[in-house]
Write a structure and sequence with these properties.
The chain is an alpha+beta fold. About 45% of the residues lie in helices and about 10% in strands. It has three domains: about 45-190, no CATH class; about 195-260, no CATH class; about 270-460, no CATH class. It contains 17 helices and eleven strands. The chain has a five-stranded antiparallel beta sheet with strand order 5-4-3-11-6. Strands 1-2 form a two-stranded antiparallel sheet. Strand 9 and strand 10 (about 400-405) form a beta hairpin. The radius of gyration is 33 Å and the shape is elongated. Bound molecules: zinc ion (2 copies).
Amino acid sequence: MRTSVRYNTDMYHGDGETTAGAGDIAALESAVTLFRVRPRAARPAARLRGRMLRLRHLIDVLELEFARDAASLAGCDELEWQGHISPIQWVKHECRTTTTAAIDACEVGAQASHLPESFHALADGAIGFGHLALLARTAEAITSSETSSGFEEAPLLAKARQHSVGKFRHDCEHARHAADQRRFLTEQIDQVEARTLELKPAAGGALFLRGFLDSEGGATLRTALESLARRAGQEDLRRRDRRLADALVELAGHALDSGALPQSTGQRPHLQVTATLDALRGLDGSPAGELEWGGPIAAETVRRLGCDATVARVLFDTESAILDVGRARRVPAPATRRALRARDGGCVWPGCDRPASWTQAHHLRHWAQGGATDLDNLVTICRGHHWKVHEGGWRLIRTDEGMVVLPPVPLELRQPATPAVGGPPPVLLDAPRNRAPDAPPSPPPGVQPPVASTPAQARDPDGPSTL
Ligand SMILES: [Zn+2]
Ligand SMILES: [Zn+2]
């Protein structure tokens, strides 16, 4: 049962404490009460800052007193912890604070004998309680290790006087390494062993991520993501967490695009999309596309993925006739792609700085609607902006002055595509591209094996791009 201990005077006179023990806290409570009921007046910022500094110092001093009491409680018989497994747990639950704050309080109190000068420094206002908590944790780590060379308070306290709490955290890590390299290395190894990433499927083919990375792993990921997560111009209003998520998808997509990932069971990893021709043409009434590992996806997403995707395999329709959607090559031939990248020099979206190697080919008029896969109808565009011109509804127009973007057409006003000849047989797309002349991946269960309509297609390193 939770034992509720309220911070009020009744507790000190009705909970078995001696009058001598209650007097000091009662006096403090009276002072705080008087302070709280004072007349409040607007103050200039300079005075506010001065008051806040003094208030913070008082809070820090009280934190130190709290820590001393926490250490005293830790020294009591565990019956005094009232059913909690440790004094930290008692502090956390009964004093209604966080685990970190409870550990800091207990640790600071416990390390009093190792930190006499630091306690004075806090009382003098030379350091804050955040510094003292780090000093205490460092002292505990070093003094509790059999392999350490011993804890020295003075040099670390000197750093605490100079540095912010954030920077002092690094000072403490350096001190721990200097005093105890073996334990430091052991902890870093433990962090690597504790790496984890949970990918939990959610409704609609979405994915929840939860994980933990060690310091180097985290720094590697952050370094890669930060460069991709910068705002793409002033009109980029995405929140930082959204930009980081976009960056993670872009990073993975680029790794797939580059073909640099190791093969799995003889195949290059790539997305697999299945769709009917009606979906590719954006016709009303057509079923959604199907993304392996992702489930049903919107037709417009199929069209984007198909904009620069090698069609590696052809499925048969219900009459087992080979699908024929006409002449369009979906993917630029290597020479066309080189010319395209040389001409556009990167993403064509105004203001975007993604280099050519981070772009995809986009058909200004989609190939499923008769657009040619040639230089006149193609532009290079980064993944984020490719999404904008498809799902986002932005219009990308080539003019004599260069590329121009127009704001999105509202979804309800977007027109379905012009009906085209042909039935609704399924088409299997590989996305991103499988540009290397590797053996085509084997089909998923229940799918007909690859069919090359002509010997020329069979030799085409881009796969059969004309069906
Ligand atoms: Zn496109
Ligand atoms: Zn771009």
